[in-house]
Amino acid sequence: MESAIDHHTARALLEWQFELGVTDAIGDDPVNRYDLPGAAPWQQEKRVDKPDAPDMPVARPAEDPVAVAEAAAKRADTLEALRAALARFEHCELKKGARNLVFCDGVAGARVMIIGEAPGRDEDREGRPFVGRAGQLLDRMLAAVNLSRETSVYITNVLPWRPPQNRDPRPDEIAMMRPFLRRHVELAEPDFIIAMGNISCDAVLGRRGITRLRGNWGQGFGRPVLPMCHPAYLLRQPLAKREAWADLLSLQARLKGNT
Fold first, then answer.
1. pTM of the model
2. Helix count (H) and strand count (E) of the chain?
């Protein structure tokens, strides 16, 4: 009789547990939770020790290429030191695709300093500015007013490295080269600057629109600046050579002290 009672009791208890939502047993032997010392297991705060998180690398702020260029240019006290500073400058991506650093040509200390835009294929190959067809035209233009790179003109570019496919320099590339260009002018000490093309006018005068600017003297880097059309433009637009001739006569008058 006791076995029958025990069986029915056990069945009733099991059904009662099912009604409460019990689905699994967590142990082989029953545990009387009321006999456990202290708080119930589900009331005890369980502390899990976690390993110390590894030190995360602290991201360094990216260097400002313009600030780096300004500091490097300021330290250069000669033209050779400035060339070396440019050669060490690693923030301009153009350097990686260029063959040569195109720094200058002509006579340092000449009264006239010509600032072109960027090297082309021929300039990149030879490491000198204005040596292709545009450079040959420039030499003829200078000779017409008794100037030459061998005796009386100093030449450089805004960018010392050739952009791929001769594309126009980007604003950020111009910005990071401007401190070097300003220092270049300070060390070369010309009396007059010729800014040839839009990129040069942007770097020296902070303005573009060469067809409007050309022939009108301005001020840049503390010196008189004459904007002129680039010889490469003149090769594509021969009719513009008449205006270029007028600009050269204006330069010649300044050199003679007539204006």
1. 0.76
2. 11, 6
Quick check: 223 and 185 in contact, CB under 8 A?
Answer: yes
Question: 183: which 2 tokens?
Answer: 């220092």
Spatial strand order of the sheet with 192-196 comes to 105-106, 153-157, 112-116, 192-196, 223-228, 218-220
The one-letter amino acid code at 7 reads: H
Reported as a single tens digit per residue, the pLDDT across 154-163 is 999 999 999 9
Question: In terms of Cα–Cα distance, which of 91, 41, 77, 60 is closest to 183?
Answer: 77
Instruction: Express each pLDDT in 175-189 by its tens digit.
Output: 999 999 999 999 999
Cα 145–137–211 angle (5° rounding)?
A: 85
Do the Cβ atoms of 145 and 139 come closer than 8 Å?
Answer: no
- State the pairing for strand pair 105-106/153-157: antiparallel
**CA atoms of 171 and 199, how far apart (whole Å):** 9
Token code pair at residue 32: 């009387």
Q: How far is CA 147 from CA 140, 142, 152, 224, 240, in A?
A: 9, 5, 6, 18, 21
The three-state secondary structure class of 242 is: helix
DSSP characters over 42-100: GGSPP----PPPPPPPPPPPPP-HHHHHHHHHHH--SHHHHHHHHHH--S-THHHH-SS
